[in-house]
Amino acid sequence: MAKSGKTAASYRCAECGWQTAKWVGRCGECQAWGTVEEAGARSAPKAVAAGPVSAPALPIGEISVEAAATRPSGMDELDRVLGGGLVPGAVLLLAGEPGVGKSTLLLEMAAIRADQVPVLYVTGEESTAQVRLRAERVGALAPKLFLAAETDLAAVLGHVETVAPDLLIVDSVQTIASGEATGSPGGVTQVREVSANLIRVAKERGMTTVLVGHVTKDGSIAGPRVLEHLVDVVLHFEGERHSRLRMIRAVKNRYGPTDEVGCFDLSDSGLASLPDPSGLFLTHRAEPVSGTCVTVTLEGRRPLIAEVQALVLDVPKEVPPRRTTSGLDTSRVPLVLAALQKHGNVPVGGKDIYAGTVGGVRLTEPSVDLAVALAVTGSRAGVPLAPGTIAMGEVGLAGEIRRVQGVRRRLSEAARLGFRHAIVPTHSVPADSLAPGSGIPEGMTVSEVGDLRSAIAAAFG
C-alpha cells in the first residue's frame, strides 16, 4: 500500500543550504562540521485555490511610474552606479571586505538624506557610541538621523514602526537574528528569514533599505545565494587597503545599468566623490624616465588613465631571476614577457623584472599588456618614451597586438588630460578617421600597430 502524507525528515546545512535525507556530521557540499540541522518534514505539494487579490491588474500603459522615481542619495558617484538615485521600496545589498569603508559610506549617505527625511541606522556590530564617534569625525551628524544598536529582528522592526524612516540601513544583515528561525546569526536559515522580513517591510512601507553583507575569503557574498536573488540591487565596494581609491560597482541592478563604476577618495575626514580619479594614478615628473608607460583602462564605462612602471635588472647567472608584480595580473605579465622576448627581440631572460602600477590601482584588463611590454622594453634599453604618449592593446603569444573595446572613449580621455600620441592596435580606428579632426581627438596622432616589433618602433623610433 502506497504511503501518503509526510515523508522522511530532511536535513539542511546551515552554511551552504545542502540537503540530505539523514543526519550527517559533515556537510557533503562545503565540508563544514556540525552544521547539518533538521529542516522539518517535507510534504507533498497541495493545490491552492484562487483567493482575493491585493490590487486589480491594469494595462501596463496605465500604471504610474511615480512610485519608482529615483531620489538623489546626495553622493554623485553612488547615484551614477544606481542609475539616478534611491528608489522607494528598493532593497540594496552592499558587500565588501572588512575595513574597506562600507559603514563610513553609508553613514555619510544617511546624514545627507537625513537633512530632508527620517533615516534609521541599525548597527549590529558596534555600539551607538562608536558609531557616534565616527559620525563626528566624518561630519555625519544630522537631527533626523536615528541610531540604534540591535541584533534582534523584532526589535529592528519595532524601531521601524516608531521612527517610520524613509531610509533604513542595517549593518550588517549577518548579525541580525530572528526568534522564529533556528540556527545561529549569519547562518543560512537566519539570513534567509531576516532578509525576507526586511524586504517585506520595505515593500509595504515604500522604504528604501540598505543591507550590509559580509564577504568570504574568495570575495563572494557570504550567506545563501537566494539573498542576492531577493534584493533589487547588489553593490560591491572595493579598494586596496593601502590606497585612497575606493570603487563601487553594481553586479545586479533592477533600476539601472550594471556597467557603471563610482569612485571615492578615502581620507581621515571620510569619503568624497571622485569624478576625475585619473590624477591619482600618474606621476608628475620634470623629465621623462625609462621604464614607464601610460595606458587607459575601462572600469565599466569610465576610462581611467593609469601609469605602468617596470624595472629590469641584471642578476648573476647562478641566481634564478625574479618576476614580481604589484597591481597587475600575475598570470598575464609572464605571458607578455615571453612574447616580448620571442617576437619583440627584447632579451629579458635571466633578468630580474619588477612591474607595478602607480597609486595602488589594480589593472587586470588585457588592454594593459602593451603598456607593460613597452615599460619593460624602455627599462631594458634605458630609453624613455616620448612625453605625452599612451599605449593600449592586448598582446598575443604570437606577438600580435589585438584590438580592445572602447578605443574612442579611451582616446578622448587621454586627449582631455593632455596626451598627444597614442599607440593602438590595427583597425582600432576607421581608416577615414585617422586624420586629426575626423574621428580622433583634435591634436592627437594615432599609430596603429599589428605586432610587438611595430609597437616598439612606434614608441621608441
TrEMBL record:
InterPro entries membership: AAA+_ATPase (IPR003593), DNA_repair_RadA (IPR004504), P-loop_NTPase (IPR027417), RecA_ATP-bd (IPR020588), Ribosomal_Su5_D2-typ_SF (IPR020568), Ribsml_uS5_D2-typ_fold_subgr (IPR014721), Rubredoxin_2 (IPR041166)
Location of the motif RadA KNRFG motif: 252-256
Any one biological process term the GO annotation gives: recombinational repair
Binding-site list for ATP: G96, E97, P98, G99, V100, G101, K102, S103
Name used for this protein in its record: DNA repair protein RadA
The RecA family profile domain, residue ranges: 67-215
Protein family (similarity comment): Belongs to the RecA family. RadA subfamily.
Domain notes: The middle region has homology to RecA with ATPase motifs including the RadA KNRFG motif, while the C-terminus is homologous to Lon protease.
UniProtKB keywords: ATP-binding, DNA damage, DNA repair, DNA-binding, Hydrolase, Metal-binding, Nucleotide-binding, Stress response, Zinc, Zinc-finger
GO MF term set: ATP binding; ATP-dependent DNA damage sensor activity; damaged DNA binding; hydrolase activity; zinc ion binding
GO cellular component: cytosol
Stretches the record annotates as Lon-protease-like: 352-461
Pfam families registered for this protein in UniProt: AAA_25, ChlI, Zn_ribbon_LapB
Function: Plays a role in repairing double-strand DNA breaks, probably involving stabilizing or processing branched DNA or blocked replication forks. DNA-dependent ATPase involved in processing of recombination intermediates, plays a role in repairing DNA breaks. Stimulates the branch migration of RecA-mediated strand transfer reactions, allowing the 3' invading strand to extend heteroduplex DNA faster. Binds ssDNA in the presence of ADP but not other nucleotides, has ATPase activity that is stimulated by ssDNA and various branched DNA structures, but inhibited by SSB. Does not have RecA's homology-searching function.
NCBIfam families named among the record's database cross-references: sms (TIGR00416)
